[in-house]
Amino acid sequence: MTDSKFGEPITVTETKEIYVRPFMSKVATVTLYDDSAGKSILERYQVPLDSSGNGTADLSSFKVSPPTSTLLFVGWSKTQNGAPLSESEIQALPVSSDISLYPVFKESYGVEFNTGDLSTGVTYIAPRRVLTDQPASTIKPNDPTRPGYTFAGWYTAASGGTAFDFNQVLTKDTTLYAHWSPAQTTYTINYWQQSATDNKNATDAQKTYEYAGQVTRSGLSLSNQTLTQQDINAKLPTGFKVNNTRTETSVMIKDDGSSVVNVYYDRKLITIKFAKYSGYSLYNYYYNYNWNSDADTYTGLYGTTLAANGYQWKTGAWGYLANVGNNQVGTYGMSYLGEFILPNDTVDSDVIKLFPKGNIVQTYRFFKQGLDGTYSLADTGGGAGADEFTFTEKYLGFNVKYYQRLYPDNYLFDQYASQTSAGVKVPISDEYYDRYGAYHKDYLDLVVWYERNSYKIKYLDPLDNTELPNFPVKDVLYEQNLSSYAPDTATAQPKPSRPGYVWDGKWYKDQAQTQVFDFNTTMPPHDVKVYAGWQKVTYRVNIDPNGGQLSKTDDTYLDLHYGDRIPDYTDITRDYIQDPSGTYYYKYDSRDKDPDSTKDAYYTTDNSLSNVDTTTKYKYVKDAYKLVGWYYVNPDGSIRPYNFSGAVTQDINLRAIWRKAGDYHIIYSNDAVGTDGKPALDASGQQLQTSNEPTDPDSYDDGSHSALLRRPTMPDGYRFRGWWYNGKIYNPYDSIDIDAHLADANKNITIKPVIIPVGDIKLEDTSIKYNGNGGTRVENGNVVTQVETPRMELNSTTTIPENQYFTRTGYNLIGWHHDKDLADTGRVEFTAGQSIGIDNNPDATNTLYAVWQPKEYTVRVSKTVVGLDEDKTKDFLFNPSETLQQENFPLRDGQTKEFKVPYGTSISIDEQAYDEFKVSESITEKNLATGEADKTYDATGLQSLTVSGDVDISFTNTRIKQKVRLQKVNVENDNNFLAGAVFDIYESDANGNKASHPMYSGLVTNDKGLLLVDANNYLSLPVGKYYLTETKAPPGYLLPKNDMSVLVISTGVTFEQNGNNATPIKENLVDGSTVYTFKITNSKGTELPSTGGIGTHIYILVGLALALPSGLILYYRKKI
């Protein structure tokens, strides 16, 4: 035999036929068997050899399913039952000739990790197997997590048992049980106040309530917690009482921190009694007067108006029985009550007893400010010769602000109106002597103005109770209609502070989002919190068993929230094959076609069921198919393996991939066919046959590959064109895919010879089309997706172009393949610079498709902590998507973690929430595949990101709350703790000044001197400035003249008293958090009474009198 080379002439010395047969050199065939005995072929492929006859084979992507459940695949061996290759050999095995490799299996023991009920949010850990000669530490998982619990270790029994030692070598299958210690878990107490619009006789079922705030408490997970009386009364305001029927006094603490318990405050029923008869002594009014039969009685809910209850204030001058201290009863004058709000010194707390005090000689006019800023007369009262008037708050939502005194003839006693406040006393009589020495006493009339209060409406994030960006706090006048304060969400919608949530389109009264906020109401006499409604993002998960049968407990589609995990679909089989005479049908309920919502996938003989495919019949064959695995179906239809460990961050379609069990055989037929695959016939119409067909003794798995064998002997007058398989012509030694669907009942796959008459052989030329397969190239100034080469003679050679021939954003060109489907899976048939021969296939088949590999980019996650020194050593936990890694990971301040991620991968990282920190997330994308400039943007709450370059994700945790403990002590001995001090605490306004209304009022120090707040001896204060007003000093101590201040910043707390900064004591609470303790000092002594009547400061309000009604004319009269 003489060698011939393409492109070189053949010397012809006589007339005869010359057969040129292909001879392949510089390749080696690698055969991978599916079993250690070498009976079935898993894969067979060719490795190119260099000029020295050497090449390398990469075996890292080839795995074999073990023949039994107790065996593990550990690698490949060059001999049957031999030693496994090293890891370096698996990556690059030297090859110089054909080689057969056999799988190596080793016995193992199974380890089950029972973490508990998955519905509680506990981490699922899939079972693992450990080799019999290796310690269990090789398969030790990361510690699981469970909301509300601390992991206590792995044990040999669900309860009790012994701690498991992972350093041991197992001797049997083992089940390990996670033990858990209950952790401190939060629960929420919501407080509700009865609405002022309720009927005073409403039953509990008829009462309505407004949200009044909440506090967070903690207790052991799954324990039943009884509310303390301090917790029940924590937000009990004046004029209210606890509704013991509706109030929930205990709560089962859920381990996910979602427990909510509700406390209800009812308005007290206030009683006003007007005595019908006058002239009695104080003693008789108190002890002997019949206040039931001899009095007119008004009743109404606290804070409601007399008018709303059908009453009108009785004219006349009145006094009331009052507790004047030291267990003494006295009387004070009562000018007017317009609402059911009583002075705090009535003898009975919920009842005021009024008695006539004589004829009215003084007139008191009370003006209330309207929404437009002007004042109008609200009520008129009177006095019967009072010498002094005490200003009180008479209207909810208003503060007494100004007063002016007049003589009875409307001449002015005060030239200008003066500012005042509740509790201030002023004289309302004028004694003097005229020029003649005559004594005079005038009783003064009084005009009092009540200013309408404004309160704040805050738009808050229910996840952390902080203000929503782009929704600023607004000041709203009392009784102002709130419809204009409904946020305009057409231009900006509220954005959750954590990923996995979206706005549900509603606003709520309470942080727990149990009651929708109604903006068609008016502003109440207190600040209003409005919470954006968040709902967890729900994703659609579709499960395609692809002919497999699921257990009845597994669904074919699921709706899961962001961050949930798909349950592991391990109980799936496929024991049926198509058979026209079979008696089984396949039922598959897809999301879009499941009228009964059964969500099933199984084989059945009942073809009347819904979603049963009656067009195909099946018969039962045990283990007919082996599960290759579950695969994620990308939007473009491509697939990648899925391992059920990642969190759900988007819609997911999963598909089971199968291969039929092995023992498929290739049979080379002698029945010749033409280039169209139809039988080749002779002149008599009989099918032509070849002889000397090759024989393949090997067995193959479904989905494996085989290299076709040599040509057969041709009948006279015909030449061999190739082998016909699955609708295509292949040359000898081409690689084909083993497709079980093409096998007959005996698992034989038939290959037929393709022949052509000698007379039809023509000297032809052809061309090659290079298809970009998603890539592009610039040719003559035009962007093209396919390039056709100039015509070339058949059997000539050409060189595969370089890997920059086409470009595709985010991908590297790594080779070419004549089959587009295989090119899309990443399989390379030809590489750059490789010399290939031009065959005589039809031009349409001479197309090579680019094989692309996604570029790999770096995703770097970094952590910055702005807070206390202790915060910088704290581990902050992250839950990454399964496209990054399967387990969560911690980061501390200044730490980073890197991942290598292919282009186009969807990733997400969700940091676990911490109430005392606000998380901001910044992303920088650089080295972008598109060539764009680097870009940095705020990504707080971003749910997912598609990688298109290197990604730096920076998480910054800024402390937004500090715990502050205030302790009252003697200035001379700070170990002498002072009980009974009373404080009001105020926030600061936008200018840093003290707010008009306290956030806490009436806080009292205990016997340790500690200020109690909602049953805690510390305050949890958001970042900001706060003012402390001591309203009552401990007995025997002086009341400070000046407010104290607390400044809370992310990195600490400062406390100022009398212009001096106090040194804090930093301590750790039982939960590990830091509290700043400051000592507030008081000096012993007794307050001296103030002198100077109404004071020395006169406030002039120019033009205030213009707000009075036109019928009231005032004059200023000098004393004569």
Summarize the structure.
The chain crosses the membrane at residues 1098-1116. The chain is mainly beta.
Architecture overview:
This protein has about 1100 residues and is an all-beta fold. It folds into 9 domains: about 25-110, Listeria-Bacteroides repeat domain (Immunoglobulin-like); about 120-180, Immunoglobulin-like, CATH 2.60.40; about 185-265, Ubiquitin-like (UB roll) (Roll); about 270-450, no CATH class; about 460-535, no CATH class; about 540-660, no CATH class; about 665-760, no CATH class; about 770-835, no CATH class; and more. The chain has 4 helices and 85 strands. Strands 1, 2, 4, 6, 7, 8, 9 and 48 form an 8-stranded mixed beta sheet that branches. Strands 77-76-79-80-81-82 form a 6-stranded antiparallel beta sheet, with no helix packed on it. Strand 83 and strand 84 (about 1075-1080) form a beta hairpin. The N and C termini lie far apart (about 150 Å).
Task: List key phrases describing it.
1120 residues; mainly beta; Immunoglobulin-like; Ubiquitin-like (UB roll); 9 domains; eight-stranded mixed beta sheet; six-stranded antiparallel beta sheet; 4 helices; elongated; disordered C terminus
- Low-pLDDT runs of 5+ residues are 1-7, 19-24, 1086-1120
**Main sheet?**
8 strands, mixed
Cα shape: elongated
Overall pLDDT metric: 86
Q: How many helix segments?
A: 4
Helix content: under 10%
What is the number of E strands?
85
Structural class designation: mainly beta
Strand content: 35-45%
Distance between the termini: 149 Å
**Total of domains:** 9
Radius of gyration from the alpha-carbon trace, in angstroms: 45 Å
